[in-house]
């Protein structure tokens, strides 16, 4: 039976189980949007192509299924570069479909032409320029396979207009269902090597100060339950990186929380003083290690990862285990039980006592609110946490509010924390929250944003209102680019250069209302709880709360750039107790 490229694309996406597409039509992709009318797939019409990419990311983070974005050629494709780079660094399964000028016009500088595959080569796991309509079903099948297997990541498919246009003979071909994949050189190793697992188990059984260093690979591999079983079997503490918040429950007695530049003191110092890092699905990011040559100097390293390119890239691994991290953890559990389990391990009571002492001496801390100050952002987050459902999905932007959200929210469920970790993309929160809500419509979704981030992508609230995706947005409005201001205060002699924003321009309450949302402004501590309760009760439209927060508040703890984790700075009121 004959078909055409546009219909074949729709059929192929449906065959891959796609339920939602985030996109914006334009000239080169227009022939594809016509058969979309007859498809059962939902299309979410965004207000900016970058929003489509971040929504697809939020959908993928929340559901575990690949997100799909579809935009036209030229500037639409270049607007997708940031989400693609973001997804690449955070290993998010994403399939992006872009329109391209007709085949015969490629290379002529035609209207809205750009070298999309060339531009995106560095920010995709793989990309395709399709030149034959008959290749579309197989390419889409391959794209989803590549995006979701091995280390997940973004894949882009660039489609010239003529091969999807039903009025062009080049678009027509005999329909078929693709089977299998012919991808020379692409064969991700999933099964870990048994000898590597046994070597890792032997190191664990010798260690007196071990720490499980768990990263975002735990969530990508659906390994949260296995991680908990391993930690409890070993009775070993776990740190959860920014990308694995919720991958091990914060309320578990073995959880130390987030390590890194703004991690809590105990998590940072436990890694630093350990004698064995059991590294599972983490990549030794610079925000975790601080100065690499001073990171955990006395520790041996077990490094388990699906991507062999991560081994020895930043830190030498005494045992490197390539494979799916869930299968690796399950193999470690079996190997440790064969070695008589916890009973055969060294006495670690002194180490546990030390860790407990750090927790008692250096908890997360902020000074209470005083008359005349703005709201304490930490207090706002504590109230958001305590007055929202336990399985609330939280999406954040990037900056101080991101760190406070990770520190003060309690993540006891996997796939409830969505943020831009590797790329640090301001403006991520609102579209990512919309994507998460599209994928998990029955869940409460809060976007925690700063006023700087919010001004970058707030137009997508129109998308949320029109598409009946009632997210809730907490804007921690301190009138500054807060993290930049903090650095200028601490490291640039308080020379504040181009960081002051106007807290009243725009008026966030009125802006929200102009976009069909509920707008609320909160200026006093006694207003915080009623505003949150009201927001949580509203489910027919988005809600934006403008929390007027204290501009001088800084994020602690903090490891200064270029320093080691031993140089971690705690809150000024706690510094004296470290002497």
CATH architecture title of the largest domain? 3-Layer(aba) Sandwich
Number of helices: 23
Strand order, sheet with most strands: 3-2-4-5-7-6
* Strand proportion: 15-25%
Count of distinct structural domains: 3
Secondary structure elements and pairings:
Blueprint (H helix, E strand, L loop, with lengths): L1 E3 H11 L4 E4 L6 H7 L5 E4 L3 H15 L3 E5 L3 H5 L1 H9 L4 E7 L15 H5 L5 E4 L6 H13 L5 E7 L11 E3 L19 H13 L3 E5 L2 H4 L3 H11 L3 E3 L14 E3 L7 H9 L2 E5 L5 H4 L10 E6 L13 E4 L2 H14 L10 H13 L15 H10 L6 E4 L3 H9 L8 E2 L10 H11 L5 E6 H7 L2 H7 L5 E6 L4 H10 L16 H7 L3 E5 L2 H13 L5 E6 L23 H4 L4
Parallel strand pairs: 2-3, 2-4, 4-5, 5-7, 6-7, 9-10, 9-12, 10-11, 12-13, 13-14, 15-16, 15-17, 17-18, 18-20, 19-20
Antiparallel strand pairs: 1-8
Helix pairs in contact: 1-2, 1-7, 3-5, 3-17, 8-13, 10-13, 11-14, 15-16
């Amino acid at each position: 039976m004959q078909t055409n490229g546009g219909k074949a694309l729709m059929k192929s996406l449906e065959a891959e189980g796609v339920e939602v597409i985030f996109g914006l039509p334009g000239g080169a992709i227009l022939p594809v949007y016509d058969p979309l009318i007859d498809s059962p797939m939902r299309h979410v019409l965004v207000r900016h192509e970058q929003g489509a990419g971040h929504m697809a990311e939020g959908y993928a983070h929340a559901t575990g299924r690949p997100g799909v974005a579809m935009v036209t050629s030229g500037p639409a494709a270049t607007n997708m570069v940031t989400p693609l780079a973001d997804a690449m660094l955070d290993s998010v399964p994403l399939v992006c479909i872009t329109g391209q000028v007709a085949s015969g016009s490629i290379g002529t500088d035609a209207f809205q032409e750009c070298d999309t595959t060339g531009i995106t080569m560095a920010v995709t796991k793989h990309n395709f320029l399709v030149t034959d309509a008959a290749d579309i079903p197989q390419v889409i099948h391959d794209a989803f396979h590549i995006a979701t297997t091995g280390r997940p990541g973004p894949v882009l498919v660039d489609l010239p207009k003529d091969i999807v246009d039903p009025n062009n003979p080049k678009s027509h071909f005999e329909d078929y269902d693709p089977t299998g994949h012919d991808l020379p050189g692409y064969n991700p190793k999933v099964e870990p090597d048994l000898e590597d697992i046994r070597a890792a188990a032997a190191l664990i059984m010798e260690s007196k100060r071990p720490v499980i260093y768990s990263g975002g690979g735990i969530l990508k591999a659906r390994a949260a339950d296995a991680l908990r079983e391993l930690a409890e079997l070993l009775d070993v503490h776990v740190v959860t990186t920014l990308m694995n918040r919720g991958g091990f429950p914060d309320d578990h007695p073995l959880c130390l929380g987030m390590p890194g530049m703004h991690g809590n003191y105990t998590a940072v110092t436990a890694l630093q003083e350990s004698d064995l890092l059991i590294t599972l699905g983490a990549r030794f990011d610079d925000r975790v290690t601080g100065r690499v040559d001073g990171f955990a100097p006395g520790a041996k390293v077990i490094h388990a990862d699906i991507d062999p390119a991560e081994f020895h890239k930043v830190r030498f691994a005494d045992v490197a285990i390539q494979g799916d991290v869930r299968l690796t953890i399950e193999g470690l559990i079996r190997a440790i039980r064969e070695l008589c389990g916890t009973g055969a391990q060294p006495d670690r009571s002194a180490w546990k006592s030390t860790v407990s002492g750090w927790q008692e001496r250096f908890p997360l801390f902020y000074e209470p609110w005083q008359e005349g100050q703005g709201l304490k952002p930490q207090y706002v987050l504590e109230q958001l946490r305590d007055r929202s459902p336990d399985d609330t999905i939280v999406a954040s932007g990037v900056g101080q509010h991101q760190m406070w959200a990770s520190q003060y929210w309690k993540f006891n469920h996997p796939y409830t924390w969505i943020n831009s970790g590797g790329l640090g993309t301001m403006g991520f929160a609102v579209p990512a929250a919309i994507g998460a809500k599209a994928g998990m419509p029955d869940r409460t979704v809060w976007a925690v944003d700063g006023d700087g981030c919010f001004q970058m992508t707030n137009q997508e609230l129109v998308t949320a209102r029109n598409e009946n995706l009632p997210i809730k947005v907490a804007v921690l409005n301190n009138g500054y680019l807060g993290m930049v201001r903090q650095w200028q205060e601490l490291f640039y002699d308080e020379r504040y250069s181009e960081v002051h924003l106007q807290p009243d321009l725009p008026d966030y309450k009125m802006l929200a209302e102009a976009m069909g949302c509920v707008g609320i402004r909160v200026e006093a501590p006694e207003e915080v709880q009623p505003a949150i309760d009201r927001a949580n009760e509203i489910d027919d439209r988005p809600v934006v709360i403008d929390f007027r927060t204290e501009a001088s508040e800084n994020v602690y703890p903090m490891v200064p750039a270029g320093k080691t984790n031993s140089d971690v700075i705690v809150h000024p009121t706690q510094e004296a107790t470290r002497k």
